[in-house]
Amino acid sequence: MISCQVYSLVFFTKNTFKLSLERNDIKFKSGQCFSLGIPSLGINREYSIYSGETDSSLEFLIRIVDGGIISNALSKLQVGDLVEINGPFGDFTIKEKNLHKTHLFVASGTGIAPFRSFVRSFPELNYKILHGVRFENELYDKDNYDDHIACISQPEDSKKGLRVTDQLNKFDIEFDVIYICGNQHVIYDAQEIIYNKYSQTPLIYTESFF
Amino acid sequence: MKISISYPPIVNKYGQKAMVSQNRNVQYFKKPTYLLPVVHAQAATLLKENGYQVIWDDGNAQLKSFKKWFDDLILNKPDIVVFESTTPVMKFYWNLIDDLKEKLPSTIIVLSGYHSMRMPEESLTSSNVDIVLLSSNIDFVLLRLVNFISKNSNWRMTCNVEGLSIRVRDNLLRSTGLFRQVEPLDKSSLIDRDLVQWNKYAYENGNFLQTPGTYASSVIRDCMFGKCTFCRYNGPDLTFSKMSIIKSVDEYESLINKYGVREIFDDSGVWYRGKDAKDFAIEIIKRGLHKKNCYFGFNTRFEYLDEETIKLLAKANFRFVLLGYEAADDDTLQKLNKGYQLQHVNKCLSLLKKYGLHPHLTIMVGYHWQTKEQLDKTVLEVKRLMYSGLARTLQVTLCTPLDYTPYHNEVIEKKLLLTDDYNDFDMSKLIVKTPLPHQDYYDAVKKLYGIAYNPRFIMRQVLFLLSFRKRDWQFIFTYGVRAIRRVNQHVYNLTKNA
Q1: Is the N end or the C end of chain A the one with fewer CB atoms within 10 Å?
Q2: In this predicted model, what pLDDT tens digit does every residue of A38-97 receive, in sequence order?
Q3: Tell me, what's the ipTM?
Q4: Under CATH, which number does the domain B206-495 receive?
Q5: Would you identify the CATH topology of the domain B2-175?
């Protein structure tokens, strides 16, 4: 376990913020996760890394869960406070053998975190991101992506809402590798669409947030 | 179509039977311990619900000899037989499959389980098995497979159900690729208790504080953490999924009211945590199930439960809480990817103790890196936790690489394995090179189980059991006798080779 100081908290919405921590020479593969805990609390939770492998800080995209002990405690941290870090863990990473292939990233909500880590770590990657959110202000750091399609289910203007599954159905191109991350039900629905739509099933990797 | 989900009685040279144990690993025991194979039971239920004739054929729980079990299977002449594989019984299964194919050549034999799903070709070349399932979602894959076979006589060539390795003919094999779970776990079936003869598993299980007990249909398939290197619930081929609270509580309600169950254990790798755990407890209380004289239990991890949740769980009549402690040094925990810190163990156990829950620790010894200092520290720390009443019961196993988990692959890569005979992987002896003589680890096992005979521990245990709302002397006596019997058995098993 390593303790890292808080560099900053940046709130995107009332309930979602980016937590930046000192790097402390911690090595990880983009897309992996860490357990974050508050000293003295004795509880931790896993969060996917939001920053790239060579970024100077460790960043996490955190949604405050109603009644959630850790997410609420993290949201109240001040610059200089300590966070306990365990990890990295997990295999939800870019595979070297696939680097030259076309990638589709399907995210719901804060499930975009590992994908930002991917694109910051592999700037040459040939990818497209579908990001499903309820409101426009949940399109966290959308300018960070070269090829980003926002799927806003409850847009403020008169436009009709769009879900990632709607967009998936619209695609007339096929990708070699597909990563899906976020809400479990979005993962199921997306897989089903891909399964039915693709002439040859692509490589699919999933990471469920819970 | 008739499908038999079969567990043969497997007896070793000591006359012990192979029983599913910690982490669903197979260990040989003289005294019975019967754990309901939950996912296979759900598979049996799902097939039955879809109109197939299903035989639940657990030769162990049904107290059959091997001969009787084998003869019955031949007589039943099923169209499909499904087995569950794990490393220490692979050779047994390969021989059995070949014998069975001789007697029932047209029966399709399907091998499921974590070992064969990671090494499908090995089983297809070492035996005459027809199909190996490449998924832990046995229920969903099996239903699709059986649906396909029932409608397609040339299924060997044409079956496109994902997650299978199929023998087309002789040595010609084909894979349909990795299975991707599309169905939410809520679409799985709640176990048909009558079909699987639940009462045969209701008494001989050391983790039940009272009986009859049973296992719930797991709310989490595989593990929500899924990173521990030694555990089979780890790997890119697994897809974590979660059942809804209402569906699970519906099952609890039925188990209590219809079957008179007095203890329900959910053997999910890691049970609900946070809001889900609280909502589950609230639902149990709302339905009055906490007042039905039934205890509830589950597996969890250190640093997952906060005080408010523990308090609610206690109110809802939860008791047995199984925690993977593994070792008392942070270096080992880090190598195992346990994701928790020793410094937080006391706090978690203190809270569980404060609200009257029953923490059960699982510990392993004999990691390929474990030094004397690390081993001694584990023994000392576990003694402290047990004598102080912070933990109530424990289970110690020899760390055994199994089912091509990351730990298994690591010892293969580092050439630390002392045997390649799968029969040696039965957790009865250490099979990896270690810094200390193996005897030192066996001695540690004896010391840890010896805690059960310490007067200080016995006194604490009696006081704790008396603190239960229940004032049932028979319960306390029965639990005590069962506990001692199991301790003796574990000590015998783990040290008979010493």
Answers
A1: C
A2: 988 889 999 999 999 999 999 999 999 988 999 999 999 999 999 999 999 988 999 999
A3: 0.83
A4: 3.80.30.20
A5: Rossmann fold (3.40.50)
